[in-house]
Structures are given as structure tokens and as C-alpha cells.
Design goal:
Blueprint: H1 27-30, E1 33-37, E2 47-52, H2 61-70, H3 72-79, E3 89-93, E4 101-106, H4 115-135, E5 140-144, H5 155-171, E6 180-185, H6 188-201
Helix pairs in contact: 4-5, 5-6
Bound molecules: ligand AR6.
Residues 39-41, 51-53, 59-63, 65, 107, 144-151, 184-187, 190 line the site of ligand AR6.
């Protein structure tokens, strides 16, 4: 007898549900968001957001690049933080990097969650990172494409989650001090995903 097919570990990517209510077009808000393809370790912004893991002790991907460029003091500072929960973030100084602070955000491993829970955890990374940045008086923040590398979050699912969380924060009272959020991506698949969803979350005026 033929066995039934094994269900996927998580629901297959659903089509994106547009945000409700539809975000109002705002040239001021639009000017506060930028997408850049490049190396986040080169940016002299107030805070760079790293895609870390729960140990905060470094790893591969953008985390490895940030630790290499910052030097060993960063790992010593991270060790003192005692790890971080998934969906949250912690901040350190930036040491050898040209930015002022590093915010270490721990994104979800996509395969371990279902769609909605992973999305909520990913949104939490963006919201918590922005709250930490605003609390430290940062005006410019650069984000890595959290969870879209080793952690396997499909870029087309991650981009609307990130954009929604960034928009909500910038519109809220805590977001007032943040002049610029730069999303820094390394790969064309992330650039394409952001370009697809920006008109929905930051509609043209
Ligand atoms: N600048 C900007 N983006 C980069 C850079 C860079 N220098 N290097 C890679 N990326 P990943 P995750 C992009 O895997 O999925 C680590 O081992 C990359 O193309 O770095 O959250 C941690 O320690 C991708 O789009 O982070 C964790 O264990 C994005 O950064 C785990 O990986 C994020 O990919 C976290 O996995």
C-alpha cells in the first residue's frame, strides 16, 4: 500500500496579503527608507543591525563579517550579554566598525516555525532593534536581511514583514528620532523582494 505523502514541515509560502488599512502615501516617510545592495560593515551609520544567533558569539554570514571587521572586542562585549531570545535583539558598541553601535538581532529559523509564528518573530527583531536604536539616540539604522540566509526565510516572505514592522515603528511616537532606515542586502533575490513590496508599504505619493 502506498503511504500518503509527508506534509511539509511548514505551510508552503502563501501569497502575500496586502496590509490593511492600506498605508497612506507619505513623501516624508518614503524619504526615511532606503534599500542598498552592498556590504553593511562599511556603513558609517549610527547603528548596524546584525543577523545573529541566540548565543550572540558570532557565526557565518553577515554575523561573521561584522565580527571580523569589528575585531575581538566585539565578541567579548557579546559574551557579557548572556545570549538573546529569538525575535529579540541586544546592543553593543561597534569597536573597529565605522558605525557607532551594533544591534544583534536573532531571527527565527524558518524551518522550525509555522508561517505566522516565524513572521511574528521576524517582525519582533525589527521592532526591538528600532526601539533599542531610538533609545540610544540613533538617527540612522542599517538592517541586514535578517533570517534570509542560513536561517532560510524566503526573501519574498521576509521583505513584507520587515517593511511592515519598519513602517509601523517610523509612524509611532518612538520612531520620531529616526531619520533614516537603510536595508542592506547582499543578494539580488533580496533586492528584488524589497523592490516588489516597497510600493505596498511605502506607496508612491
Ligand atoms: N553585508 C550585508 N549583507 C550580508 C553580508 C554583508 N557583509 N554577508 C551576508 N549578507 P545570514 P541569517 C546577507 O546567513 O539567515 C550566522 O551564522 C546574506 O546574503 O548572515 O539570519 C549567524 O551566526 C543574507 O541575505 O543570517 C546565525 O547562526 C543576509 O545577510 C545565522 O547565520 C542574512 O543571512 C543567522 O542566519
Amino acid at each position: 500500500r502506498k503511504l500518503p505523502p509527508t506534509p511539509p514541515a511548514h505551510p508552503l509560502p502563501t501569497t502575500h496579503t496586502p496590509p490593511t488599512p492600506a498605508p497612506r502615501p507619505s513623501s516624508t516617510l518614503n524619504a526615511r527608507l532606503a534599500v542598498l545592495r552592498g556590504d553593511i560593515t562599511h556603513l558609517a551609520v549610527d547603528a548596524v543591525v546584525n543577523a545573529a544567533n541566540r548565543s550572540l558569539l558570532g557565526g557565518g554570514g553577515v554575523d561573521g563579517a561584522i565580527h571580523r571587521a569589528a575585531g575581538p572586542q566585539l565578541q567579548r562585549a557579546c559574551r557579557a550579554l548572556g545570549g538573546c531570545a529569538t525575535g529579540s535583539a541586544k546592543m553593543t558598541a561597534a569597536y573597529g566598525l565605522p558605525c557607532r553601535h551594533v544591534i544583534h538581532a536573532v531571527g527565527p529559523v524558518y524551518e522550525l516555525g509555522d508561517g505566522p509564528r516565524s513572521a511574528a518573530l521576524l517582525a519582533g527583531c525589527y521592532a526591538r532593534s528600532l526601539a533599542l536604536a531610538a533609545g540610544a539616540g540613533c538617527r540612522s539604522v542599517a538592517f541586514s536581511a535578517i533570517s534570509t540566509g542560513v536561517y532560510g526565510f524566503p526573501s519574498r516572505e521576509a521583505a513584507p514583514v520587515a517593511l511592515g514592522a519598519i513602517r509601523r515603528f517610523l509612524e509611532g511616537p518612538e520612531g520620531e528620532g529616526i531619520d533614516k532606515v537603510v536595508i542592506v542586502t547582499f543578494e539580488m533575490k533580496d533586492v528584488d523582494a524589497y523592490n516588489e513590496f516597497i510600493p505596498l508599504y511605502f506607496p508612491p505619493v
